[in-house]
Amino acid sequence: MTETGNLHVLHVDNHPGMVSLTAEMLEREDDRFTVTTATSASEGLDRFSNEKFDCVVSDYDMPGQNGLEFLDVVREEYPDLPFILFTGEGSEELASDAISAGVTDYVQKERGNDQYAMLANRIDNAVERARTNRECQRQLDAIETAREGISILDADGHFIYVNEAYADLYGYDPGQMCDEHWELIYPAEEVGFVHDEILPTVEQEGIWHGETTGLRADGSIFLEDHTVAATDRNELICTVQDITAQEDLHQKHQLVARASTDAFFDWNLRTDEVTRNEWYLTMFGYDSSAIETSADWWRERIHPDDRDRVLAAVDRAVENPATRYDETYRFEKKNGTYGTLRSRGYVVYDENNNPERLVGVHIDVTERKEHERKLEVRSAAMEASIDGMAILDADDEYVFVNQSHADIYGYEEPDAFLGETWQMCYGKDERDRLEAEILPELYENGSWRGEAVGTRKDGSTFPQELSLTVTDSGGLICVVRDITERKQQERERKQQNERLEKFADTVSHDLRNPLTVAQGRLDLARAECDSDYLDGVADAHERMATLIDDLLELTREGNRVNETESVTLAKIPTDCWQNVATADATLVTAVHQTIHADPNRLKQLLENLFRNAVEHGGTDVTVTVGGLNGKSGFYVADDGTGIPDAERATVFEAGYTTLDDGTGFGLNIVQEIAEAHGWDVQVTDSESGGARFEITGVKFVE
User: For the PAS domain, which residue ranges apply (predicted)?
Assistant: First the structure.
């Protein structure tokens, strides 16, 4: 802050009346505020030559430079200065652009003077956050330059921060460690110690201190002085120091040699006894007390459908020295289920060339067999997919192509691709782009998804959505979809949206700003004098504001919906009822289903239907929301005067109204929202003779 407790704000808006009113209202809201004004971005920049500011508040739509361009210039010189976009532009696209550009806050201009209290609060919060961030940055700089290693773990044990010293201790870069689990940097035996001793102590006492053995990226180990402390955010702060030089680490911590994870066996063919290593005991859940030395124990646990085949393979290996024993079969686990074993071995003969022992290894291939099964299922799914799917080997040649892939590129048979490279599907310019831009990113990240331009057999081109994934063997899995129709729809939709957005900008900026100033001046006039004429002015302002809001809702929202989610019809009508001036009207909710809908747009639909019922049915009307028997949908009905048959075809038209103060957009908005969801809306009579709106085609949550 420029002075202790004071806030100096620069407000930039090309509307002179708006900057004057905003400055006056902010200084009234908080006497700590001093507001300097400017009516263009260039004038605002000039203010910085002689004054220091704690925060900038700027409109978006200004000649010369808009608000985001002004932000870029300010950020070059003052990267940490809070910058709030205060604008009548309310589109999601602008909000997204503002956030991406790095505005501190985004505040949409509203009607009335209450908005200035909110704006003052946002300014105060932004300035306080900036001060706090500067202090946090100073603390972070101190941590970053500390000689001891410092890290922070989230509640699941993953690193969310490590300083350079911490990463250096373990042989990593800080970025490599973030999001990794702490078990990455400890030997297996030490992981158990952390789980059994350290973490329980921290949970009970809040802190643990002692010595642990760290594991570097290169596999070497070191002794560390280690402190672990819990925070009130359920995070752990760890500090470590390498103390290897202080003690003989080699004597204190001997790494236990890791035995093979395969199960070795030595079968004495004369005594029928088997010697096994410890992995044999644990591979399928058995302990030493449950395993007998006799080979019968093994024979009995081979799956009945596999037993004869496996034992016959043993006999062949014993009888013929040139035959190796190698069989895959199902073997019973301790819990009664079956895993899959691959057994490989050879026969050892005595000095008289008689078979003496069968020595070999059991390998647990349960996961591999399951993987193979999934591959078979996946292969069948790929064949049946409507998307083009292909697999290429490490030489970029096709080894599998489904029929859809061939159809997309204009070939009759998938075999036309086999042995060819992917270049056959693209023109020269697109091949060059793929090789220069896409393939390097693909092989660096392991996958890529985006759009490309394919070339059919006849030479015609088409836009495509392309997904590429690198396989373990260095090949590629390719999924392609023809998006010609979608691109055409996008172009048409973009043109339509541009026209609507241009209209909305005119309504928002050229009408709402003067209206906001007029409302503000009206409030100030009320403070100076008392006149019945002012009530009429206020009513006119409110009428204009409602008309602007309805126009903006139609043009900016129209028949669009965001992602749908589960919405309970038993609850949402009550929430909507609170947002409508209902006087003595009554709401009855007689539906309990849950539907798929955009909750915000569904609220707009219900609020407009409620408002229509109260305005046309009377202040004491009863409004009912209920389910449709035998239909997938719901209704909103009232006990008012109803809608004549002759008018039902026109009530949904934009601008149609029977009220002197109506806008004629409410039911048109209802229809737009319904169509955006894929629903249908119709008007009929309610049981009491009022109006009943039926919304059908609704998808219920099972």
Answer: 142-187
Indicate the SS3 state at residue 37. strand
Does residue 222 have a pLDDT over 90? no
Q: Residue for token digits 């993953």?
A: 158
- Under the banding of pLDDT at 50, 70 and 90, the label for residue 311 is very high
Question: How many Cβ atoms sit within 10 Å of the Cβ of residue 698?
Answer: 22
Q: Residues 526, 538: contact at Cβ < 8 Å?
A: no
Asked whether 259 and 271 are in contact (CB, 8 A), the reply is: no
517's enclosing H/E stretch is helix 513-528
Spatial contact of 358 and 315, defined as CB atoms under 8 Å apart? no
Where is average pLDDT lowest: 66-70, 244-248, 449-453, 603-607?
A: 244-248
| Interacting residues of 6 by C-beta distance below 8 A, sequence separation 6+ | 32, 33, 34
Out of 227-241, 270-284, 557-571, 620-634, give the one with best mean pLDDT. Answer: 620-634
Residue 201's Cβ-count burial label (10 Å; 0-12, 13-18, 19+) is: middle
C-alpha dihedral sign at 451, 453, 454, 460: positive
Strand partners, 222: 214
Residue located via tokens 């009220």: 659
Q: What is the dihedral of CA 307, 313, 314, 318, to 10 degrees?
A: 160
Query: Where is 693: in which H helix or E strand?
Result: strand 691-696
Beta strand 7-12 with 33-38: parallel, antiparallel or unpaired? parallel
Q: Indicate the Cα dihedral angle 301, 302, 304, 308, nearest 10°.
A: -130
Task: Read off the pLDDT band of 350 (50, 70, 90).
Answer: confident
- Taking the CB of residue 363, how many other CB atoms lie within 10 A of it? 17
- Nearest by Cα to 158 from 175, 179, 174, 177: 179
Q: What is the DSSP string of 262-283?
A: SEEEEEETTTTEEEE-HHHHHT
On average, the pLDDT of the chain sits at: 83
Q: Is the pTM of this model over 0.90?
A: no
- Cα(653)–Cα(14) distance, integer angstroms: 37
d(CA 115, CA 512): 14
Q: Are 611 and 648 in contact (CB under 8 A)?
A: no
The single-letter code of the amino acid at 399 is V
User: What is the Cα–Cα distance from 567 to 597, expressed in whole angstroms?
Assistant: 6
